[in-house]
Description:
Blueprint: E1 4-15, E2 23-36, E3 43-49, E4 58-67, E5 74-80, E6 86-93, E7 97-103, E8 108-113, E9 123-134
Antiparallel strand pairs: 1-2, 2-9, 3-8, 4-7, 4-9, 5-6, 5-8
Amino acid sequence: MGCFADIQSPRVAYSHLTCCAQSTYVQDQLCTQINIAPEIAAFAQELYVVDINPAKLFVSGTLFISAAPAGRVLTVNFFLGGAGGTLVETDTVIPGTALAFTKTGFDTIQLAVTAGIGVTPNITGELCLTVRYPVA
């Protein structure tokens, strides 16, 4: 996985809705390029890990996969408690497409790749997230 290509400074938003208590939120944005050299065996790569209370974390994002070796199945896993924790949701992404999501209650995003004989091209794409969490 490449380095963080674009991280914007946290922004603060205020909620003044009459139907709920006033809250102050911080909003971060993260976009990073993905470039993973595949192995012949099945493997998994953590794409995002956060240490904020997952009950207070709200994430909208997209995961775009531009290329991957033929015949590989790419599964996006959302975990609570790290990659060895509870699997919250799983989605499949096909090269040339993007997965869009809005989620809470997780702390790790992982890309799992099935075994295969092809090791070219590299798995490439981009992960873009907008992360929101209340300031206590």
